[in-house]
Amino acid sequence: MNTAITAAADPSALMRIKSLQLRAKAVVEGFYNGLHRSPFHGFSVEFNEYRPYTTGDDLRALDWKLYARTDRYYIKKFEDETTRRCYLVVDQSRSMGFGSLEYTKLEYAQTLAATLAHYLTLQRDSVGLLTFDETIGDFLSARNRPGHLRSILVALSRPVAGKGTDIDAPLRQLAALVRRRGLMVLISDLLTPVETLQTNLAYLRSRGHEVVILRVLDPSEQELNLKAPGMIVDMESGKEIYLDPDAARASYREKFKRHQQQLKTIASSLGVEVFDMPTDQPIESALFHVISVQKRRAAGVNRAGMIAGTAAKSPVTRSAVSR
After folding, report:
1. Judging by beta carbons within 10 Å of its beta carbon (0-12, 13-18, 19+), is residue 81 exposed, middle or buried?
2. Which of 53, 195, 285, 308 has a CA that sits 20 to 30 A from residue 258's CA?
3. How large a percentage of the chain has pLDDT more than 90?
């Protein structure tokens, strides 16, 4: 089996790769190799240069050579369809340093962000980065130029420095700095009150940004899988707390589920997508999540154009091809 596919499918194998760049490359290569149903499989065509024909599209934009190869109708995208901006907002607070597996949530989140940056760069999209803990860390404007991906990877590789989590400041700064509409991908465990998050997500959405949340969680955090009573340390406050897991498990699960439901309710009301990313699950699933959001966004743009009057033309038929 191809080693890229193996690494992409197994997070433990992936995390044994020391280079963040090589990890991201392995996931993306495995992802592309898995696209068996792609109409471009076997051809040297960038995925972001074409989209399927839909009723109302200008027939002059059809690529007949691609039709001859695939027996399907595809439209060349216009510049405003191909140039997209994406900002990766990555939580690097102390709580992200937790991990019951061979790696931490932060290592998983860094690999997740690096994978998305690598994929979007290959798609010729502009990618930016904002890292944070209790303060704002690195901020890189969205660009697509030689060397920019490397700058993102360097920023992502920085070790945890802060303690607490202040998700308010980075989201406010992002909304203030980024004027042109784009896709915002928040990568965090979201172990923070949801009220502040709601205000800032609403502000981002009011500025026209699409928002996707990739919630990174360790499997033990979802079920409180501690084996014996003992002293535990709050990773952000540094306080020591005695915990009996058997006595606390039921209450913990209830609070965890309530917080999760509150988050999803708020996100749903704002049109924000939330996807749970347990650290024992393949990272490539995040690519499917982001791509699905991009496709829905593109479909909305296409529908808006059709309503504006671009849908007057007849659909393509095989008889039209023969003529």
Report:
1. middle
2. 285
3. 38
